């Protein structure tokens, strides 16, 4: 007799409350290194735990905004640096944009740590300046 057909791959088993909280906090802490951790955690675990779905979505929305801002600022920075070759005073603007880039990264790290700690203690975190692209 033939073996029964294997079960289709599903979303996986639901996360325990502890694992759900852990993955939710890791999504926020992962924002320190960039877009990939929050994206992977949200895609893999969003259907397995309510807290991971909510917090992962919040973390992903935040890091998408930070990444977009950083890319836009780097483009402006490079443009100012190229212009500064012909007009040296423009290098002051490039320096200011560089400081804003640093501030964006510092703000990201600060908020990611605050969010990760709050979620790891059982709370929830909403980033104060966040366009929520993913609903």
Per-chain topology:
Elements: H1 17-29, H2 35-45, H3 50-86, H4 90-120
Helix pairs in contact: 1-2, 1-3, 1-4, 2-3, 3-4
How would you describe the overall organization of this protein?
It is a single chain. With 135 residues, the chain is an all-alpha fold. Helix content is 68%, strand content 0%. The protein is built from four helices and no strands. It has helices at residues 17-29, 35-45, 50-86, 90-120. 26% of the residues are buried. The model has no long low-confidence stretch (mean pLDDT 91).
Strand count, sense and closure of the main sheet?
A: none
The sequence of SSEs as H and E is HHHH
Strand content: under 5%
Total beta strands = 0
Gross geometry: elongated
Question: Which structural class should the secondary elements be placed in?
Answer: mainly alpha
The low-confidence runs, each spanning 5 or more residues with pLDDT under 50, are none
Q: What's the structural domain tally?
A: 1
User: What is the straight-line distance between the termini?
Assistant: 48 Å
Task: Round the Cα radius of gyration to an integer and report it.
Answer: 20 Å
How many helices in DSSP terms?
A: 4
Roughly what percent helix?
55-70%
Question: Mean pLDDT, rounded to whole units?
Answer: 91
